[in-house]
Design goal:
CATH superfamily: ABC transporter involved in vitamin B12 uptake, BtuC
Shape: globular
CATH class: Mainly Alpha
Number of helices: 14
Structural class: mainly alpha
CATH architecture: Orthogonal Bundle
Helix content: over 70%
Order of helices and strands: HHHHHHHHHHHHHH
Strand content: under 5%
Largest sheet: none
Radius of gyration: 21 Å
Number of domains: 1
C-alpha cells in the first residue's frame, strides 16, 4: 500500500478486508451475547423468536422484552466505545503522542462540570445530558480559541506540547470545580454523581445522534486516511507532499472533540478505551490509518460492550460502573503494551 511518499507499507487489501470482516463478525457476536447475558438469561433457542418479535414491533414475551432492553443498552455501549477509540486514534495523531487519549485535552472534564451542575440542581436526565454536552462544547471552543495557531499547520517545535498543556490546564480547572460540587452535593445526589464520573451505562439508551457523530467522523477520517498517514510522520513532510496540514489538523480536532463529547454525554467518563484500543490495533494490524481507523472503531465498540456485559453480570443483579471495569482491565493491558513498546 502506497502512503503517498512512493514507499509501500502496511498490509494488502485482502488481509485488510479479512481483518475488518472478522471484527464485524465479532461485533455482531458481542451484540448477541449482550442480548442473552444477564441476571435473567435468554435461552439461545428463544433468541431467534425474540428478535423476530422485536422486528415486528411486538415484544410481548419475556425473552423479547429482555432482548429489547439489553440490545438498546448494547448499541449505546458499542457506539460509545467506538467513538472513544476513534477519538483516541485522532488525538494520538494530532498530538503525535502515544499517551494521548480522548480526555487529554479536558473535553471530558468540561462535560463533567456541566453534568454535575445539572445533577446538583436535581435536573432531569435530559438536562444532565444537555449539561454534559454544553460543558464539553464550551471547553472545546475555549481550547480552540487558545490554541488555534497550533492547529493551523506548519507546526514549529513546541507547538504540540503547547496545545497539550493548554488542555491539561483546562482539565485541572474543571477538576477543581468537580471537587467543589461533590463537596457541596447532598447525599441524595452524591451517589449518582460518583457513578457518572466513573462511567455508567445503566441509564444509556440507543439514540441516533451518537451514531450519526460516529459514522460521520469515521467517513471523514477514512476519506483523509492517506494524508493522516503523512501527518503522523511530520507536518513539514506532509505539507511538502501537498497535504493541507492546517485544515487536516483542525478537522481531526473537531471530529475528536465531537466524538468525545458524544461518548461522555452518553455514558460519563469511561477511561482507557481510547488509550489501549488504538495501541492494541497498531500492534496487531500496523499503523496504516486506512486499516487502523475502522479496526480501532470496531475494536473499541467490542471492548466496551464486553466490559459492560461483565459489569452487568459479575455481581448480578447488582451492576458495577463500567468505567471501573475498563480501568481494571486497562491498567495491566496498558502496562503490557508499554513494556512491548519499550522492547521494540
Amino acid at each position: 500500500m502506497d502512503d503517498g511518499t512512493g514507499k509501500r507499507h502496511g498490509i494488502g487489501r485482502g488481509r485488510a478486508a479479512l481483518i475488518i470482516g472478522a471484527l464485524l463478525a465479532a461485533s455482531l457476536a458481542s451484540l448477541l451475547l449482550a442480548g442473552v447475558a444477564g441476571s435473567v438469561g435468554v435461552p439461545l433457542a428463544e433468541l431467534a423468536s425474540g428478535l423476530v418479535d422485536i422486528l415486528r414491533g411486538e415484544p410481548v414475551s419475556l425473552p423479547a422484552v429482555l432482548l429489547e432492553l439489553r440490545l438498546a443498552r448494547a448499541l449505546a455501549a458499542f457506539a460509545t466505545g467506538a467513538a472513544l477509540a476513534l477519538a483516541g486514534v485522532m488525538m494520538q495523531t494530532l498530538l503525535r503522542n502515544p499517551l494521548a487519549d480522548p480526555y487529554v485535552l479536558g473535553v471530558s472534564s468540561g462535560a463533567s462540570v456541566g453534568a454535575l451542575a445539572a445533577m446538583l440542581v436535581a435536573g432531569a436526565a435530559w438536562m444532565v445530558d444537555a449539561g454534559a454536552f454544553a460543558g464539553a462544547a464550551a471547553i472545546s471552543l475555549l481550547l480552540y480559541l487558545l490554541a488555534r495557531r497550533d492547529l493551523r499547520g506548519g507546526q514549529a517545535e513546541g507547538r504540540a506540547p503547547l496545545l497539550l498543556l493548554t488542555g491539561v490546564i483546562l482539565a485541572a480547572g474543571c477538576s477543581a470545580l468537580v471537587t467543589l460540587m461533590l463537596s457541596l452535593a447532598p447525599d441524595t445526589s452524591l451517589r449518582g454523581m460518583v457513578f457518572w464520573l466513573m462511567g455508567d451505562l445503566s441509564g444509556a439508551q440507543a439514540a441516533w445522534l451518537p451514531w450519526l457523530v460516529l459514522l460521520t467522523s469515521l467517513a471523514i477520517a477514512m476519506r483523509e486516511a492517506r494524508p493522516i498517514n503523512l501527518l503522523a510522520l511530520h507536518d513539514d513532510a506532509a505539507a511538502t507532499l501537498g497535504v493541507r496540514v492546517g485544515a487536516l489538523r483542525k478537522g481531526l480536532f473537531v471530529c475528536a472533540t465531537l466524538l468525545t463529547a458524544s461518548a461522555v454525554t452518553s455514558a460519563g467518563s469511561i477511561g482507557f478505551v481510547g488509550l489501549i484500543v488504538p495501541h492494541g490495533c497498531r500492534f496487531a494490524f500496523g499503523a496504516d490509518h486506512r486499516v487502523l481507523l475502522p479496526a480501532a472503531t470496531l475494536a473499541g465498540g467490542i471492548f466496551l460492550l464486553l466490559a459492560d456485559i461483565l459489569a452487568r453480570t459479575l455481581l448480578a443483579p447488582q451492576q458495577l460502573p463500567v468505567g471501573a471495569v475498563t480501568a481494571l482491565i486497562g491498567v495491566p493491558v496498558f502496562l503490557f503494551q508499554l513494556h512491548q513498546l519499550h522492547r521494540k
